[in-house]
Structures are given as structure tokens and as C-alpha cells.
Structures
1.
Amino acid sequence: MGYKYTAAAFNQLLENLRKKHRVYAPILLKGKGKFSDADLVGYDEIARVEEVVFNQKSYFSPKETFYPITQTLFYFAGDEFKESVVDEKGIIVFLRACDIQAVERLDKIMLENGLSPDYYYERLRKHLKFIVMDCQESFDSCFCVSMGTNTTKNYSASVRYENGLYLSDVKIDIDGLFALYGEQFEVSPQFVETNKQMVQVPQNLNLESVAINPIWEEYGARCIACGRCTVVCPSCSCYTMQDIFYEDNPKCGERRRVWASCHIDGFTDMAGGHSFRRTNGERMRFKVMHKINDFKQRFGVHMCVGCGRCDNACPEYISLAHCIDRLGKEEVGNCG
Amino acid sequence: MTINTKRVMKNAWRITRDRNLTCLRIRVPGGYLPVKLLPLIQEIAERFGNGAVHITTRQGFEIPGIAFEHMTEINALLTPLIEELEVKIGVTIDQPDQGYPSAGTRNVVACIGNKVCTNAVFDTTALAKDIEKIIYPNNPHVKIAVTGCPNDCVKVHMHDIGILGQVEPLYDAQRCIGCQACINNCHKVSTGALTLVNYKVKRDASRCIGCGECVLKCPTAAWTRGGKYYRVVIMGRTGKKNPRVAATFLEWAEREVVLKLCANLYVYIDKHIDRSLPKEHVGYIVDRTGYPIFKEEMLKNVDLGSKAQLASILNFAGPMYDNHVSFLNT
Ligand code: SF4
Ligand code: SF4
Ligand code: SF4
Ligand code: SF4
Ligand code: SF4
């Protein structure tokens, strides 16, 4: 069912959604860019629809709204422990088609991998509802079409801003509020069908030849192991555990789970000082293979959804899209 | 030939080694020049000079090889340049068609700042122009420079007043993944103000110089930019007597404070300058009056705010040329 809303009507809708949900969207974070006098588009709670940034891609992904960067899992005191409490409110997130597909990738690794679902992921994930933001035009670094992630049907509602109105296709109305504040109107969400950059995704990489491909040395010489590409990625799921012992009373403390990155020093460190992938080139190879090969072998879809955020974030201008394309073209070349 | 050298020099023309020729000095506040003014500089150099300009260390142009007789004509030609670079930014110049009204107070120089540089804490050109508005035109020999961060690319430490940008880094522990990029970088390139405590980062505010390197290196924006502040260093100089690197006077000062200090400096100079000398450089006035008097007069009617730190002594370093003990026994 489609609806249209004036800003005032949409804001009333939001106000009522916010009674039982936290509503997150990409907004302009004033002065939060890394350079002075620069803004950043990132996720935060919104109260008004005018805050939502529609005409830019968010720098950080929506992942942090339901998979926190730092999350306390439980507190301990001597032999006892107590689980941390999570907000029972729902989580509504404005995000793009590729981002929703990325959440589906996270679900696979967090809920379908191993014997039981990841409890701490699931307890927030089950509250999550999607509002997909239409993509009328592709942004510079997007390559979702090549990854097959440019559309989605997995959403409660869609939204786009057009001629002063907010247009929504509602699949699952949340508490009947979309119908209550909207005026019926024919709407179908818009997704891009082409990107400015189209990428040749390799189909069947030969692991042995990939391992000795000289491109990793080249990337290794360029990459500074900062981890930006992974922290902005909507489908990276890695985390590490931290046990904190309170200074005043080391018998008490908490266990936290914090995002981690395969690009950053220390990721593969093990007791005894052994470390698997020491060079930045090896790390790049590991990431790329995970994103466009290994994950698919296990789950049937690529982990990378082609959102292009890693390209935007890399201080060394390393483009994953370009890297994938190189591998894809080499593969075709080798076969032909 | 009769020439009033004092008046000529005050008008930004030089006495040169060639008795018949002068040289024009053009100031470019903040060193940022709209290129539409370049053809005029070219025209003057080609029509009246020797077809070349010297790019000065103070981010201006000197146009050499001009006969004295052309001064009035060239002063009139300069009008659009003076209008654009001075009058338009708010400098009071009564007769912009008669050349520069004074030359003692030198051009305010600035690094490129956050127009281009990733390190820059603020818009250096904008501050340079606001300072120019306060201090120009003026006769005392004063050099002021503005730089975007503690890298000090403009060498403000060789100036009477040097201004360096400082940013207060803000930390959001929830966003921190403990990668230590900020800690390592602060240790390597700055002051080592950061340490890891329980996997999160602690900042020792007394060591932090506000360079912003932690913000630049943080992948998750756990560090972001808070308020903009300024370190003010004073009485650095070159010269024949006692060159020295400026000493910190204030840190974490607000913009308004910086502007007020620039104004107060001229009140101080006017009160204490030795008028028996042809000119006295402000650093030597401070050497004579001492820091306590200087400090008191500079801070008159200045509200330092809650963040600013004031130096208790001026910690200078620099040789006295006439007291160079290392030569005594050789
Ligand atoms: S394009 Fe980059 S950031 Fe986006 S999903 Fe792929 S790897 Fe992650
Ligand atoms: S963002 Fe670029 S430099 Fe940083 S780890 Fe990723 S590929 Fe390397
Ligand atoms: S002083 Fe700092 S801001 Fe200015 S150019 Fe140098 S590094 Fe950039
Ligand atoms: S601003 Fe500079 S000195 Fe201060 S903590 Fe950050 S890196 Fe260190
Ligand atoms: S760089 Fe950022 S994420 Fe890394 S330790 Fe420092 S604050 Fe934490």
C-alpha cells in the first residue's frame, strides 16, 4: 500500500513511532568530519524527517544502530555474573537496499553460522525494522548492481523525498501508523539499475593463483592497516572480547564486545606471540577473498554488497571495486 | 634628485642600492591572492620595473627596478589592489589611490590552512584578514603570523606574535575499538598525551597540544573535533642582536582573545617605545620593560575565559651574537 506525506504528517508519524521505537537515520553530524569545518553523514536518532540526509551516502554504515561498536555483555563480581540489560524498544532504521542486504549477510554469519545463533546479536536484531530509502541515482562509489544488491523487498516501508512530499510504499505497517498519517497514493520504491562504475566480479577464483598474484604486494605497499575500510563496511562482522577489571575492585568487572578489523595490527595475534597475516598485502588478500569468494562458498551470496563505503573511507585511495574488477578481468583473461 | 626618504618608505617604497631606482612592496594579507589581481602586478613590473617580481618571505611581492618619478602614477594604479585586499576586508584606508599608508607593521602571513591542508585546525586566511583589520595601517615594526596547527609551517615562532591553531579533541569511548592508532600517532608525531587504560583511551590534557592527529587517525570517529583555540607565542625574532624562537604566552585562547591581544600590543608599544631611536623593535621593548608589565598591559580588558593558560615566565631560547662564548678561546 502506498502513501504520501507532507513533512508535518511524516513528523507526526515519527513522533508516534518513537513512543515504542528508537528511529535512526543518516543525518548530518555538524563538524564531525575528520578535517576541520567538515561535516559527516552518520547515523543517529532522529525526531524529524527533515534531519534525514537523502542526497548523500552515509560515511558510516547503519550497522552500529543494532550491532553496537562497544557492547557490555555482562558484569561479573567474584563468582557471580549479571547479564547487561538491553532497551526493549524497537529499532527502526532508515537505510539503503544494499544496506538491508548487508544486514542479511550479518544475519547469516551471526545467526546461521555455528551451532546456535549469537545471543547478543539476536537480542537487538529481533527488534530491528527497516525503512528503505529509495536510490533514485547511484552515488560515485556504488557498485551494487554488479553485486546484485541494488534492490530489496525486505522492508516495512520505503521512503523517498519528491516535490516536497515523502512517498512511502508500506509492506508491513508499524502499529498502523503509516496508514493513519498518510494519504493513499500509488508508490513503488525506486532502485538504481546501473552504477557509474560497473565491476567484473570473478566467478570462480583459483585460490592457488590468487595467493601468488602480485597485486597483493602492490596493495600491501599502499595499505597502512588503518582499518577504515572495515569499520565503515555494513557487512563486516568481526569483534573482539575485552574483560575489564575495575581499578578499585579488580574482582568486579565486565565483559565487553568491541568491533575488530582484519586489517589492523593484532587481529590474528594469539597467545605466544604468533600472528597469521603479518603483511598488509596478506590482510588485503584475506579481506578481498572473504568479501567476494569464501563467504559465497559457504552461504551462496557474496559478503560484499557493493555499497562503496570502503572506497570512500580509504586514506590511501585503495578501491575495493577496482581490485575486484582487476581480479574479475584477470579471470576472464586467463580463461579466454 | 630630492626625495623624502621617510615618507617614501612609509608609503611602502624602498630605498635601494641603485640611487635612481626604488622597489614597491605589495602586501597580501594571509598570503591568499585572487589571481585577477596578478595582471596588475605584471603590468607594473613590465611597464615600470624590470619585468620581474620578488616573492617575499612575508607573502607579498616586491617589484624592483622602478624609477622614483613613477611612484605617484603607480600608487594610483594600485587602487583596485588596495581596495580588494585591504578596504574590502575592513581595513580603514582614507585615500586608497595614494598607495600604502604605512609599511612598518608588516603583512600578516598565514599558512594555507584548512582551505587545503588536512592538518589545519581552522581557516588561517580569515584570521589573518581579521588581524590585518586591527593592526593596519600602523607604523611600529611588528610581525604577526598565523598557522593552522602546531606544525607551524609558517614559522610563527620567528614572529612578534605567532598564532597556532589548537583543537580540543573530544572522545566517545563507546565508538572506540581500541586500535591504538591515536595513541601510537600521538606518541610518534606529537606529545604522547594518550594512553590505553582498560582498552579505552585516556588523554592527559596537560600534555595535549591540540594538534588533532588523534582525530585524523581514528577510524571510527571516536575522536572528533571540539572547540577551536589558539596558542599565542610571542617575541620571536631574527636580527643582528639576539635572534630567538618565540616563547608561549597563552595556550587554549579563544579567537576574540587573540584579536584583542593584537590591538593591545600597539597600546603597549606606544607607551614604552624609545622614541630617541629611529625605530625600536617590539621584542627589545619587552626585554626592557620586563614580562610582568608586558603581561599586565597585554591582558588589559581581556577576558581569558575558562580554558586559556597563561605563561608564568617567558622561556626564550636563542643566541646573543655579541656574547658567543664558543668563539672565545679559538
Ligand atoms: S563495498 Fe566495501 S564497505 Fe561496502 S560492503 Fe563491500 S566491502 Fe563492505
Ligand atoms: S582503509 Fe585503505 S589503508 Fe586503511 S586498512 Fe583499508 S585498505 Fe588499508
Ligand atoms: S601549519 Fe599545519 S595547517 Fe598550516 S600548512 Fe602546516 S601542517 Fe597545514
Ligand atoms: S590533539 Fe594531538 S597532542 Fe592532543 S591527544 Fe590528540 S594527537 Fe595527542
Ligand atoms: S584511534 Fe579511535 S578507535 Fe582507535 S584506539 Fe584511538 S580512539 Fe579508539
2.
Amino acid sequence: MTPTPTRPLPVPDEQSAPFWAAAARHILTVARCSACGLYTVPPDQVCPHCRTTDPAFSFEPVSGRGVVRSWTVVRQSFLPGFADQVPFVLVDVELAEQAQLRLIGRLLDGPDTALHAGDPVTVGFEDLADGVAVPAFTLAGPAGGVA
Amino acid sequence: MVGYAHSPVTRHAGRPLGAVAVDTARAAIVDAGLEVGQVDGFVTSALFPTAGSHAVVDGESLVSADWLAAHLGTIPRYVAGFQGIGQIPGMVGLAVNAVASGAADYVLLHRALHNPTGRYHGNPMTTVAGAQQWTAPQGFFGPLSMIALPYTEYLQRYRADRDAMAAVLVEARKNGARIPWSYWYKQPLTAEEYRAAPMLSDPIGRFDCDLPVDGVAAFILTSAQRARDLPHRPVYVAGYASSPPPPRRLPLHWPLDDIMTGGAETARRLWDSAGIRPTDVDLPQVYDGFSPFVWFWLEALGFCPVGEAHRFIQDGGIDSDNPTALPALSGGGALGNGRMHGIPQMLECYLQLAGRAGDRQREQATVGVACHSSPHYGGAVAYTSEPG
Ligand SMILES: [Zn+2]
């Protein structure tokens, strides 16, 4: 993708900084609770699975594989930097690592891509600026190895 | 509930929202046969529902209960604002409990909605911190994509067709066209017009979204005992329910399973609170700020089987002109009135059950349900024409 520096750039905070540092190296990570070991998107003060108030989330690399649960073709944008990018597709992806672990990102295959619930995808990244990349997805095809 | 008033619904009122709210509140107090000094409780839920970067100014873009009481020149005993989602059931709960506890004798409940100049959901952010850092950089922002995702899931899962939604819009606008204060008064919509409108965030098109407006509604609530001495036949709050906390998700991520699982709990709470069953309801008023909510609510409340709402409506199941159908959008909803955020549903329950619906009066309506927001992130109120 062509870098588009006017798109909103994430401002990492104390909790999210490791996620964005890994994303800049094109590695997808997900917050994992140190108490129960389950993943959460996005992390919170309290683990939504075991309810510990000290989850000490660590961002651990994941496979980047998943399946499409839903999608939309965005034809009107409300944010800067997207006016020349519409129409684009957003996909709601359930990651392979855990049931109901869902991310939303752009599908990089283009706005006319035929999609079906259950289509396998794999993570890709859009470089938005120096040291800033956001996760996105591409269709993995039937050989993607996702059950 | 013993009286009401409703301002005209316009794109831009041409006057400050607060002034419209004061006029509407005064009219509601008169309608209930009361004087301003007798109203000792003020309740609202003042949220300005926009993803845009508009200034939030009390009296201009929203109207709090404190602001309204102060500008009516009265000193109430009880003032409260509901902070959660599902603003209408939340604030009806506050008002009912204020009356039941004796904290107030007569509560004025209002909702003031504002359409700012500029794009309603437009936001010039160039950096993003907090929860939206996980979604805005990807372009997932605002409610159109929010509702488009579970809508796509529904269409896929139940092999439904977006064209089926035309029946929802035709019904909402048919009823809205009969309501003099509606933005869409005398402006019905055809299925052809619906299908020809541009897509915004597939499968959401232009007419699947309600239109932002300036508008204010106010209602007066009191005890059943005090209501006997007032001019209008009272309508009774039989019960109310807010949704359970939703699962942890990305901002604005509402998977269909969350909507229907949470919606089942919302429904269970409603029936428990009101002591009624779905088959008792002859006036369901489902929320429709985005058209797919009509399908979700009908199914969540058990008015048709899960996965069947699209067929149920196409087969005339909610036709307000068919006495044997369920008139689920007889008040026009938000799609047929404008973005009044749950007020059209509440008002239709009030007008029909109080026998004040004029030409639109239904013979049989005795039990109404007014829904707001999403089944998993909202709530509903049950109203009856007789005390429970
Ligand atoms: Zn945990």
C-alpha cells in the first residue's frame, strides 16, 4: 500500500506500546493474560476471562491466520486520509488462536473481492508512516491451512 | 404517564436547542394539567450521539435535566441523568423509581436531539489515542460500519437478501408520512427508491440510516393515584429492562452473536420486570435507528423465529394497516420520523394506549413495548393501558 501519512496515526500508551512496536516490524501480537493465559482484544484493566485486576497482559505473537466472520465495503469515510481510498473492505476476522478472538482490519485484496463467511485470511500490514504500521488482512485461499 | 409534548422535527430548528426544550417542557406540563411549580423531578439522558468532533455544549448540542430545570425557573427536589446506553429505558427507570420512592411527585422526562452543522460523524483526527487506537487507523470508525458488520453476518447466516429490507423502510416511511411533526410527513418511500439509493457501507445504504434532526420530546410521569385527578387517561409503565454488560470487544464491534445473546437476556429481564409474555404485546415498537435493528429486535423479543424476520416483514407481518399483523413500526420509528433516538417508539406507545393517536388510533392496543438501541446494548420499556 502507498503510505498515507494523513490517516489517523495510533498514539501508543503504556499498555499498547509493545503492540505497536511489534506491528512496526510486521508482527501481529495479541494481549495475553498472565493469570489465565487467554487472549483479549483489546486489553483492559481487568481480564474479561478470569477477572483478575492484575492481568499483566503481554503482547504475544500469533499466527496471523483466521477466518472471515463478516465484512463491509466502506464507501464514505469520516476520517482524514481515507477520501482517496474508498471504497475499501473491512473484515471482521476470528483469529485461529482462540474462539471469538476477533480483529477488524482492512482487506488488502481490493473492494470487488468476493467474500463468504468462513473464508481464510492471513495478516498483512499497511505502513502508514516511519515506524508505524497497522495490521490488515489478505485472503489466504483454500490452501491457507485454516480449518 | 400523564402528558407529553413534541416539537417539530427539522433538519435545523433555527433556534437554540435549549429554547426548543423549554417550550416543549412547558407544553408537556400544560398537557398534563399541571403548572411548572408542581413538577419537582427532572430526568433525562443527555447523550449527543455522534462520532464527530462537535462541541458538546449544554443548552445547544444537548440539554441536561439541570439546564432545563434552571431555565424553567423552578427548583426541583430530584434531578437525574442516565449515563448508560439505552437512554430511554434508562431514564424511564430513573423517573419511575423517583415517583415510586417519593423522591418526586411529578417527573418531567425529556430528550433533546441536535443536528450540528457540518458532517454529523465527520472527525478530523490525525492521531488517535485510547480505545479507538485499535480501530480508527484501519478506517473502522463510526456507526455505519458498526451496523454493517452484524448485518452482513445476518444476511449470510440466514441467506437473506438486502432487498428484503425495502419492506422495513416502506413500512416506516408509510407511518411516518402520517405523522404531522415527522420530518418525513407526507413523504412515503417506495421499494424502488430504497433500492436505488447509494450504498454507504455495504450492505447499509442511505435509507437504512435515520436522518439527524433537531427535535425535543417531553413526558410527564406521576403515580397512578395522582394520575386519576389529571385530564388524560394515564398510560402505565409495566416494566423496563436495560441490557446486560456486553462482551469485551473492539470499539463499535457488535458481532451478531453478541446482539442476539445479549438480546435474549434483555428480553428475559423485560418479561420478568413487566410480568407479561411476548404474546401479550399488541403494540411492539422496535428500535430502528439503523434498519437491521428491526430484524434483530423482532427476533430477540420472540415476535418471530430467529432468522425469520426478513421473511416475516416481507409477508406483511408488521403492516400497520392489517389488523391481524404486529404493528411494529406504527409510530414511524426513527426511519420514519428522524433521529429522535427511541422517542418515536415511546411516543407511539403513549399515544395509542392513552387513546390520543387521532386518525391513527388503533382499536385493540393495550400492551406496548418501546425498544431502544441494540438488543444487547440498549433496553426496552413495557407500557399498558390498565394498571398492572
Ligand atoms: Zn485472565
